[in-house]
Amino acid sequence: MAKKVAVIGAGTSGLVAIKTCLDEGLEPTCFERTNDIGGLWRFNDDPEDGRASIYKSVIINTSKEMMCYSDFPIPEDYPNFMHNSKIFNYFRMYAEHFQVFKYIHFKTSVLSIKKCPDFATTGQWEVVTEKEGKQEAAIFDAVLVCTGHHTNAHLPLDSFPGIERFKGKYFHSRDYKNPQLFNGKRVIVIGIGNSGEDIAVELSRTASQVFLSTRRGSWVLNRVSDYGYPIDMLHVTRFLNHLKQAVPKSMLNWIGESKINKRFDHANYGLKPSHR
C-alpha cells in the first residue's frame, strides 16, 4: 500500500513535490489555501493575506537555464530572465504536463499538523484542514511543507521614531504594485535588497525624486555578465565551486570586487559596504 504524503502549498516547490511523490510510488494530497497554483508568482492587484505578493513589473533574477525543472525545460522562445507572467505560465504548463491538478485541493487551509499518538512506531501525522467552513482530519505518513518564505512583511516601525506624525504614506514593498501612484512625488525607499533596488529604479521614471536608503551599502551585481551570458550560468559551476575550495577567500573577494567595481566604483557612489 502506497504511503500517503501531505503537500502544503501548490507553488513552485509544491508542484514538483507532487510530481516527485508520484515518481516514487507515493500517494500525494496537496492542500492549497487559494484558488490556483503559482504561489509567489501569481500576480494579483491586491495583496492577499497569507500569500506572498509581487509587483506588476517583477522579472526574476535567475536565468531560465538555471531555474527550470530538470525534467521540463522552459520553452526556447521565453527570455533568459522572465517576467512573472511567463514564470506563472511555465508552472501551469508543468502542472498540466505531469497532470498534478487532480491531486490538489484548492481553497483548503491547513489548520494544524500534529504527530499521531503512536508516532514513535508509525511515524504518522494528523493533518486538520478547513474548506468552506468544514473541517476534516486525515492521517499521513509524511508531510512536505511548501509554503515559501516571503509571506509576512517586516515593518519595524519602532525603528522610525516620529512615524506617527508623518503626513505622507508609508508601507512595505509587498503592498507596492506599480509606479503610477507616485507620479511627481518625493519617495524614499528603505533597504537595498533586490526589491529595494528594483522599486527605486522603477519609481525614478515617474516620481519627482527618489532616495535609496541603506545602512551599510551593498555589492551590486547585474543579471547579465561577460559576453551577454546570464551571470548565474557563468559563475554557478562545478569548476568554480572546486576553485573556491582551493583558493583563499581573500583572493576570491579581491577578484570579485575588482571586477564589479569596473562596472561602477562602489566607493564613488557611497555604496561600498564593510563586508567583502
TrEMBL record:
Alphabetically ordered keywords of this record: Endoplasmic reticulum, FAD, Flavoprotein, Lipid metabolism, Membrane, Methylation, Microsome, Monooxygenase, NADP, Oxidoreductase, Phosphoprotein, Transmembrane, Transmembrane helix
Gene Ontology biological process terms, A to Z: lipid metabolic process
Cofactor(s) needed: FAD
GO MF terms held by the record: flavin adenine dinucleotide binding; N,N-dimethylaniline monooxygenase activity; NAD(P)H oxidase H2O2-forming activity; NADP binding; trimethylamine monooxygenase activity
Enzyme class: oxidoreductase
Xref: PANTHER family: DIMETHYLANILINE MONOOXYGENASE (PTHR23023)
Biological role: Acts as a Baeyer-Villiger monooxygenase on a broad range of substrates. Catalyzes the insertion of an oxygen atom into a carbon-carbon bond adjacent to a carbonyl, which converts ketones to esters. Active on diverse carbonyl compounds, whereas soft nucleophiles are mostly non- or poorly reactive. In contrast with other forms of FMO it is non- or poorly active on 'classical' substrates such as drugs, pesticides, and dietary components containing soft nucleophilic heteroatoms. Able to oxidize drug molecules bearing a carbonyl group on an aliphatic chain, such as nabumetone and pentoxifylline. Broad spectrum monooxygenase that catalyzes the oxygenation of a wide variety of nitrogen- and sulfur-containing compounds including xenobiotics. Catalyzes the S-oxygenation of hypotaurine to produce taurine, an organic osmolyte involved in cell volume regulation as well as a variety of cytoprotective and developmental processes.
Protein name per its UniProtKB record: Flavin-containing monooxygenase
